[in-house]
Fold:
Amino acid sequence: MPQRAATIVGGGIGGLAAAIALHRRGWHVEVLERAREFTEIGAGISLWPNALRALEGLGLGGAVRALGAVEAAGGVRDRQGRWLSRTDNAELARRFGHPLVVLHRADLLRALAEALPAGSLRPDSEVSAVDGSGPRPVVGHRGGESRPDLVIGADGLRSAVRRALWPDAAGPRYAGYTAWRMVTEPLPEPPAEGAATWGCGARFGYTALPGGRMYCFATASLPAGAASGSSEYAELLRRFGSWPAPIPALLAAVPAKTVLRHDLYDLPPLPSFVHGRVALLGDAAHAMTPNLGQGACQALEDAVTLAHCLDGTPDVAAALRSYDLLRRPRTQAITRRSARLGAVGQLSWPPAVLLRNTAARLMPARAALRSMTPVLGWSAPGDRATAKGSEGD
Structure:
């Protein structure tokens, strides 16, 4: 079979992972990234067992795990700092084969980019047009025009590929709350456990990064596009500076100018992730809120599954239809589940908050872990181990 070519639009985690998966199978790949360099300005990222399993399929499991930190335990607290639920990472690893690993997004992106030939990475290549109507798709971009065997749209929430080929699809929908993300300076005595603290219409979470740093995130129910009226750091201090320890100390260790803020959106379900020889992947296909920590994890699953479907068949369109059947029901169900969890976490009516906290406190830890089996128990297609569950409602 002659060498096949793929053009991946978007140089984020999902796009680079797809490029690696295809490159390892002998495809010629090019990754078109509109930014001038392949980098990531985000903060931390959680890689759950299913994501580490996908990275193993890319040959990068050990290398990426070495870049991250593994906490002994974590959980959810109430506004007074009392534990509502606890998670034992050793039990998580025993049940699902891997622990929860947290690292900086820039470190993950760098590891992915370094696994590809430098010539396949094409920064400053913003896409201007995508045509999937002919025998081969055509991608117009700043560097010219590409006519590959396959196009992968991995260009995020506001995907140009999705707009071009799914023009009638509904756009992203606002989740009802905004998020701040930040990384502290190294701490002399970082917290031994991570936690998410649930308040009324607001949450604050933190988890360990390598080198004594902590990745922190916060949410607040606000209208889309609401302005702080001050610096984002000052807004965080106003909203969360009096929350229970160690939150004030963590905020004090955050460089004020590094705080990131983004309104949170997810994507209404698409009828298909595939249009002929064009496939959507990651946020371009199924953007979800971060409440389950599964956005990047699902993009990694997408990449491994797509490459598996393309193995051994010259019929790209048929392979993409198989990819759609495998990925769309699962990712759309996880999107719904994440949205429901976010709605629960953002409750602001005091009686509802009390009921939520009581229910969380009464749920056994093993039951909570078991409920995550459909999400975390995924196995790559072709693995000897079978998935320990499939996500659903």
Q: What stands out?
A: The two ends are 42 Å apart (CA to CA). DSSP finds 14 helices and 19 strands in the chain. The first helix runs from residue 13 to 23.
